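ok here's Sulfatase, seq below lol
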Amino acid sequence: MPHSTRFRQPPNTKKATTTDDLPPDSPPDSPPEQTPDDTGTDTAVGTDTAAADTDTDTATETAAADATTGDLSAAATDSTSDAAAPDEDVVRGGWRDRYPAVARTVASAVTVSAAVLVLAALLLPNQLTRLTPGEFLRIPVEGIFGAALLLLLPPKARRVAAVVAGVGLGLRTLLNCLDMGFYSVLARPFDPVLDWILFDDAESFLRDSIGQAGATAAVIGVVVLVLGLLVLMTLAVVRLSRLMVRHSAVATRTTLVLGTVWITCAALGVQLAGVPVASTNTADLVQDSAQRLRASLADQRVFAKEARKDAFRDTPPDQLLTGLRGKDVLFTFIESYGRSAIADPAMASQIDAVLKDGTKRLHKAGFASRSAWLTSPTAGGGSWLAHSTFMSGLWINNQQRYRTVTSSDRMPLTDAFKRSGAWRTAGIMPGVTRSWPEGKFYGLDHVYDTHHLGYKGPQFSWSRVPDQFSLSAFERLEHGKRHDKPLMSEIILVSSHNPWAPIPKMIGWDELGDGSVYHGIQKAGKDPKEVWKDPAQVRTEYRRAIEYSLHSLVSYMEKYGNKNTVLVFLGDHQPVPTVTGENASRDVPVALVAHDPAVLDRISGWGWQKGLKPGPKTPVWRMDTFRDRFLTAYGPRPGATPPRAAH
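and the structure came out like this:
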């Protein structure tokens, strides 16, 4: 008997009954209630008892043993002094005997909490938008079947089943929470096969956004919550299973009634607040996860076969990109520059003004432009998936596809320039902080990551290097130098990366120095933790970040662009749903800017709109179709002689 010690009894008395021996609903001085499923040795807080799982013979043997103990105790009591009595009461009682009302209250509260926890887990949706009271006012069919199974199983099997069910329900709850997070950030559910690698990126994002101490505390907190969830869910299911067995008659009737109500509600389509009362939530989510798991495993084989097909694999080098020979070609990605920045009424007027002003400024500098839409394979994050899709001409929407394509001999668009032998290739990657072996796949002769740009200024949250400084470094390290070949570059601008605070400001190009000038700008910026308390502020700061990136790029072209400069710039993906709202498209703007009219003549059949701002009726292409269209447009025309390379 837990929390108590067997004590001596006076002669000819029965063993004292403590509150440890009482069911939760019995008064402290009444004998324990006997039921066919309960031999009367339960505790006030639901402690497991052997009597619940034993037969009548065992109960008889226990009674006999108690009687014998009473006789032996009688003799021992005679030799016990009266002075010892107070100490015996203390040893005997424990807090349950001394505070029986409190014990019953605690037991009831724990039982109710266990029931609420299990019910909430069975009904928990996997999207924050569905997290409404109506979702939790339903009858889960999984709970009905689970209760029936536990009532039918023998004791040992029942205990095992309760533990397994508790752990399984805890894992399902964890996956639901992961789905909520992924839907909120990436607008898709968590992939249990491919997405584990993203936790490393999440930790890195936290470290850059809130510091090492905050990131470490967050990781520790998540680990504690995960372990606590699994343990508490298991204990809750085990507790409820014991309660049902102790009151099997009531539990059986309740299960039958709930089963009948569920079937009736399902047949009639009864709804409450627009949600079906008869719930199959957990079963549906498990089935959905299983289908996604099978799809992820099968996708690897399908994609490997698809990646081996390349219409340009055997194109002779002197036939590649003949329409751009002698041009410096810059492919520039603007982080999180999505369709919502242009189409959302809350941002459209400001971004529209920036794009119109940029078009005029570029026209004044001798440049013309065309724009349209591309549909990204990702949203909210996963920029590398968009980059590889755009360059490879393959739809890269998960990590497995990314690993497959970057380890293959597929020819990305950037590598086509290198294979032609007519260009020097370089990459400006301010967001890369560690080794980047994929750079070889992209055919880049030189990769300048965050450590090689010469930046000594402060970090702007996740964005380590302001966009204007990255472009200035590109001019200093590559574009402004004389080479024996023209230059093809991939440039990643990251100042518009989540969390969009603090945001850099445009300053004179000759004032940038080593970036130390940004210390005052960074300190005067907004705190991301404060910004993210208000979704309206998040959208405002996102818009301002996009404006800064666009200003940086247009200003660079004004100052450093020349008659041989060709710029292709686009967004990699839409921002998080906090900015776009739910069910937003995955479209991103794309624009081509050139000084030489012949460059734009090559794409006259694309139907792209004049200027930097694509219109609502401008063509929308999948991002993976761009590579082949581009290589075709700038390949040799029928009967034409490829021009000689020139700077």
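fwiw The first strand starts at residue 139 and ends at 140. kinda neat tbh
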